[in-house]
C-alpha cells in the first residue's frame, strides 16, 4: 500500500535494519516482501495505538491526546498483539 500525503510511512531501509537486529546469524537477510510486511504491520500497530489513545482522551473529556493517554492504553496493545 502506497502512503498518500496525509499518511506517514516507514522507510524500507529502517525496517530492514530493525528486522535484522534480531537475527542470530549475521548472514541472514530479510527479503523485500518481509520488509514491506513488517512496515505494514508496524503501521497498523501505530494507527491502532493512536485510535485507542484518542478514544481514551475522549472518555476523559480531553480535547487533545497526551502521553498519559498513550500510557494508559499500552497494556491493551501488548495483550492484543
UniProtKB/TrEMBL annotation:
SUPFAM superfamilies in the cross-refs: Histone-fold
Localization of this protein: Nucleus
Record bears the keyword DNA-binding: yes
Any one GO BP annotation for this protein: DNA repair
CDD domains given in the database record: HFD_CENP-X
Keywords: DNA damage, DNA repair, DNA-binding, Nucleus
Top-rank lineage group of the source organism: Eukaryota
GO cellular component: FANCM-MHF complex; Fanconi anaemia nuclear complex
Example of a GO MF term: protein heterodimerization activity
Quaternary structure (record): Heterodimer with CENPX, sometimes called MHF; this interaction stabilizes both partners. MHF heterodimers can assemble to form tetrameric structures. MHF also coassemble with CENPT-CENPW heterodimers at centromeres to form the tetrameric CENP-T-W-S-X complex. Forms a discrete complex with FANCM and CENPX, called FANCM-MHF; this interaction, probably mediated by direct binding between CENPS and FANCM, leads to synergistic activation of double-stranded DNA binding and strongly stimulates FANCM-mediated DNA remodeling.
Family to which the UniProt record says this protein belongs: Belongs to the CENP-X/MHF2 family.
Name by which UniProt lists this protein: Centromere protein X
Organism: Astyanax mexicanus (Blind cave fish)
Amino acid at each position: 500500500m502506497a502512503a498518500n500525503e496525509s499518511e506517514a510511512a516507514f522507510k524500507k531501509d529502517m525496517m530492514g535494519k530493525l528486522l535484522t537486529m534480531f537475527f542470530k546469524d549475521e548472514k541472514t537477510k530479510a527479503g523485500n516482501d518481509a520488509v514491506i510486511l513488517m512496515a505494514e504491520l508496524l503501521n497498523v500497530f501505530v494507527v491502532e495505538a493512536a485510535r485507542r489513545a484518542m478514544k481514551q482522551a475522549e472518555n476523559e473529556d480531553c480535547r487533545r491526546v497526551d502521553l498519559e493517554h498513550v500510557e494508559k492504553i499500552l497494556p491493551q496493545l501488548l495483550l492484543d498483539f
